[in-house]
Amino acid sequence: MAIELITENEFSEYVIKTFTGITKEFAWYRSNTLDLVGVLVQDNIDKDWGYVILAKEEDGNYRPQDVGASIDSKSDANNELYAKMLAIEVSGEIKDELYDDNSVSLDLPKIEIMSIDDHIKAYFKKHPEDLYQLSPRKFEELVASIIKDMGFDVELTPATRDGGRDIIAYIRTGISSYLTHIECKRYAPDNKVSVDIIRSVVGVHHMRNANKSVIVTTGFFTKDARDEAKLVENSLDLKDYNDLKDMLSKY
């Protein structure tokens, strides 16, 4: 039983990757007893550290089992990645398999091509409750990555600002552009977005001449907030926790 360091090329034998995301990979690991791999990553925006742990599922593809983010140092992230993989390995040995004993072991060719960022989004698709563990800034980055996948050019505003738009998103054509402002609220389930937030975002929307504004939250909206938003429904969309799960459903 051991977790061993491997090369990037060896890691690619398990996970086929693209390199278009918001993270950079620094180290790669695998278990020598289970179908389990891990990768140490750094955020290209805020320069903090994280990791993704992936395990082979019944269809032969590797998918996320655990994700870490907002870790201050490379060494702390590396140590946490190693410890988590070791814990899964120990648990896996007790169970004999990561999946049911009655399942058939399949040796299928890899058919999924995903960036590590897509694996992170796939993790939150399976575990949306873990969205509440993200820092507000990491939640903004996650939403920005989803919006980028929709075909927008995205820009994250500085983490210290508070001006009713965390993400500026454009779709540009040869003759015009479509400007969208996205405000992100990483709220607890019982902390609803109030009507004051709606009014603030609408004010920025008109001041900055956006085509559309969107508020995305891990929580929900008060009745007053939804009633206010209906008055400007052509300009403002509200996306709550359930909508966010729908946005993640394609990963």
Automatic annotation (TrEMBL):
Keyword Thylakoid: no
GO terms of biological process kind: DNA restriction-modification system
Domain of life assignment: Bacteria
One function term, GO molecular function aspect: DNA binding
Keyword set, alphabetical order: Endonuclease, Hydrolase, Nuclease, Plasmid
SUPFAM superfamilies, sorted: Restriction endonuclease-like
InterPro entries for this protein: Restrct_endonuc-II-like (IPR011335), Restrct_endonuc_IV_Mrr (IPR007560), tRNA_endonuc-like_dom_sf (IPR011856), Type_IV_Methyl-Rstrct_Enzyme (IPR052906)
Span of domain Restriction endonuclease type IV Mrr: 132-248
Protein name: Restriction endonuclease
